[in-house]
Each structure stands twice: as structure tokens, then as C-alpha cells.
Specification:
Mean pLDDT of chain B: 92
Mean pLDDT of chain A: 94
Shape of chain B: globular
Radius of gyration of chain B: 14 Å
Helix content of chain A: under 10%
Oligomer: heterodimer
Shape of chain A: globular
Largest sheet of chain A: 7 strands, mixed
Largest sheet of chain B: 6 strands, mixed
Radius of gyration of chain A: 13 Å
């Protein structure tokens, strides 16, 4: 158990709908990351927040948005869903901010499996 | 953008040493290189990270040459439970924007 929790575990919805995925980081971690994993795209970085502020941004679609709240949990909002958005969405957390280093090991949650029908 | 490529798959027998290489042609200068293990329907799990030369922990070794354009994960004496997908993770600064880039992943199958 990494200490990172994600809800819900599974989500089934229809095209055009909007969903919210939630992530609670490990106790003490200030950074939260969101990744998308689909069969044909591998693990793709979406966005990172550090202590409430956006820190790094990947290939996140305009239909997707995220935020980190004062209690450090994060939500990923996906709107106008398309079939191609079906994927596993992972949240990770780390102690510090940008970069990959000794104090920035990313711990991953169990993921949310999104199915768009 | 950093291109991180790995062999798609590898087969090995129990007890053998396995080496998986990740090529990353353009990574952020000050960043470490990290490797993860992933089982089906689970989140990636940290294995090891390093900056250069060789790093060893209780489960793996990581070799990084001086130019840091590649890294090799070494798993000594693999067992059936090591069957998983292995990813490298690097950072890239493209046009001043930092991004985290996972490698393409290597599916390791350990045979009895």
C-alpha cells in the first residue's frame, strides 16, 4: 500500500458526460501528479500540483482540468467525454516539487478505471 | 521532447539476471532517472533511482553512463513474481516547460 488513495475505483459513463476523479496524497506529501494509461499510449503525464499551485503540465486536453485543495487532496475533472478517454487514471504524490530526485520519489495510487460507453 | 524507448518485451528463466535498457536522448540536467515496476491493474511501484554511474539496492541495480543518454536496470536472479512491466521515468524540459516522461515499458516474463 503506497498510502495514496483514489476514488472511485471504477467509473462507467456515457459519451458527453463529465466525471470527477479524486486523489488523497500520502501524509506529508505536497505534490500530486495525474497520469493517464491507455493500451495504445502507455503512461502519459497530465499535470502536477505542488501545495495548491500548478507546477508542471503535460499533454492534458482542454476538456480536462485539475486542482489541488488546501487539504492537499486533488481532483481531476474530465468533461465532454469521448470513447478514447477510456483509460486507467493514476494519481501519484511526492514530498517536494519539481524534478526527479532523492526527495521527489513518486508514490502511485491504485488508479481509477474509466470506461466511456 | 525526450524520447524514452525500451524493448517491448523480454523473456527470462528463473534465477537468471535480467538487464533492461531505457534510451533517453534529452533529459533534464539535474534530474535523477527512476525505474518502476507495474503489475496488471495496479499503480507503478518504485524500484530504484540514480543520477550517474551505478546504484544498488536490495532488489536491483541501476547503471547510468556518463552521457546519461541511457540507463540499464539490472534484476539479479529473477523469480516468477518478477513478471511485470518495467518503466523508466525521466524529466524533460521542452521549450522551458517541464514534463515527466515514462518510457514505453518492457514486459518481462519469467519462465519456470
Amino acid at each position: 500500500d503506497s498510502g495514496v488513495t483514489q476514488t472511485p475505483k471504477h467509473l462507467i459513463t456515457a459519451t458527453g458526460q463529465r466525471v470527477t476523479l479524486r486523489c488523497s496524497p500520502r501524509s506529508g506529501d505536497l505534490s500530486v501528479y495525474w497520469y493517464q494509461q491507455s493500451l495504445d499510449q502507455g503512461l502519459q503525464f497530465l499535470i502536477q500540483y505542488y501545495n495548491g499551485e500548478e507546477r508542471a503540465k503535460g499533454n492534458i486536453l482542454e476538456r480536462f482540468s485539475a486542482q489541488q485543495f488546501p487539504d492537499l487532496h486533488s481532483e481531476l475533472n474530465l468533461s465532454s467525454l469521448e470513447l478514447g478517454d477510456s483509460a486507467l487514471y493514476f494519481c501519484a504524490s511526492s514530498l517536494s516539487g519539481q524534478g526527479i530526485g532523492i526527495y521527489n520519489e513518486q508514490f502511485f495510487g491504485p488508479g481509477t478505471r474509466l470506461t466511456v460507453l | 521532447l525526450a524520447k524514452t524507448t525500451q524493448p517491448i518485451s523480454m523473456d527470462s528463466y528463473e534465477g537468471q539476471e535480467v538487464n533492461i535498457t531505457c534510451s533517453h536522448n534529452n533529459i533534464a540536467t539535474n534530474d535523477y532517472i527512476t525505474w518502476y515496476q507495474q503489475f496488471p491493474s495496479q499503480g507503478p511501484r518504485f524500484i530504484i533511482q540514480g543520477y550517474k554511474t551505478k546504484v544498488t539496492n536490495e532488489v536491483a541495480s541501476l547503471f547510468i553512463p556518463a552521457d546519461r543518454k541511457s540507463s540499464t536496470l539490472s534484476l539479479p536472479r529473477v523469480s516468477l513474481s518478477d513478471t511485470a512491466v518495467y518503466y523508466c521515468l525521466v524529466g524533460d524540459i521542452e521549450s522551458g516547460t517541464y514534463k515527466y516522461i515514462f518510457g514505453t515499458g518492457t514486459r518481462l516474463k519469467v519462465l519456470a
